[in-house]
Amino acid sequence: MTKAEWRISDDLINYDDALSFMEERARAISNDTACEQVWLLEHPPLYTAGTSADPADLVDPERFPVYDAGRGGQYTYHGPGQRVGYFMLDLRKRGKDVRQFVYNLEEVIIRTLASFNIVGERRDGRVGIWVVRDDGREDKIAAIGVRVRRWVTFHGIAINVDPDLEHFKGIVPCGIAEHGVTSFADLGLPVTMDDVDVALKGAFDEVFGLEPRPMTVKWQPAPMGRKQIATNGQDPRIEDTHPVFKL
């Protein structure tokens, strides 16, 4: 059974530092000099642009720093109170199926939410995981965007635990203007980041069937682009640069 290292950072991680680490780790995994890793963290307030981001969706470019992420997807907010999960996994050992990998990430989020009696759902044509409010509105609670290079994944997911939802107003999240965003706290669930991490790890083990290595840090409750994506029917959540797909 494939083993993956789990890492949790309690401090807010600079985005450039996270991106550099992911790229270096993905390269090492591809070269068989490092094991797979799942990294759970939070960022300071910032926006990231995926490879299919529309500049018009950056409503307030002066509000927070904006980073070219190089992942699939459009504009996303990251900040304190949001659990970001970066998945550096070797698809050469997992069937070389990128869309199945993304589906599995969605399933991890859905099962994590279910641990807290939140019904998370996929929506055709809308990236991310959604919840239906009592009044019928559908709000996004988690975002997904990945990149694959030489069959190794990086980037991943962002689950809104207790972020400042006002910070999302500087962008059109994932290019979807007609729907809002929500969080555990917004839904009336004051869970800790530690609670979410336990549920997330359990869901990940169920979906991916991994035998994780010991945590590299102790769990602690946390305080509350580079090129255009191909237009050949590729999944917009994925920036895919392994040899099979011509981009």
UniProtKB/TrEMBL annotation:
**Which top-rank group of organisms is this from?**
Bacteria
Instruction: Give GO terms: molecular function aspect only.
Output: lipoyl(octanoyl) transferase activity
Reported EC number(s) for this entry are 2.3.1.181
What GO biological process terms are annotated to this protein in UniProt?
A: protein lipoylation
Q: Which residues act catalytically here?
A: C174 (acyl-thioester intermediate)
Keyword Cytoplasm assigned: yes
Q: Which residues bind substrate?
A: R71, G72, G73, Q74, Y75, T76, Y77, H78, A143, I144, G145, G156, I157, A158
Q: Which Pfam families match?
A: LplA-B_cat (PF21948)
Q: Name one GO cellular component term.
A: cytoplasm
What pathway does this protein act in? Protein modification; protein lipoylation via endogenous pathway; protein N(6)-(lipoyl)lysine from octanoyl-[acyl-carrier-protein]: step 1/2
- Site, Lowers pKa of active site Cys: residue positions: K140
Which catalysed reactions does the entry list for this protein? octanoyl-[ACP] + L-lysyl-[protein] = N(6)-octanoyl-L-lysyl-[protein] + holo-[ACP] + H(+)
Q: Where in the cell is the protein located?
A: Cytoplasm
Instruction: Enumerate the PROSITE patterns for this protein.
Output: BPL_LPL_CATALYTIC (PS51733), LIPB (PS01313)
Domain named BPL/LPL catalytic is located at 32-212
Q: Which UniProt keywords apply?
A: Acyltransferase, Cytoplasm, Transferase
- The main location is cytoplasm
- What is the uppermost EC class here? transferase
Answer whether the UniProt record assigns the keyword Acyltransferase to this protein: yes
Q: Which InterPro entries does the record match to this protein? A: aa-tRNA-synth_II/BPL/LPL, BPL_LPL_catalytic, Octanoyltransferase, Octanoyltransferase_CS
Sequence similarity? Belongs to the LipB family.
Name the chain's protein.
Octanoyltransferase
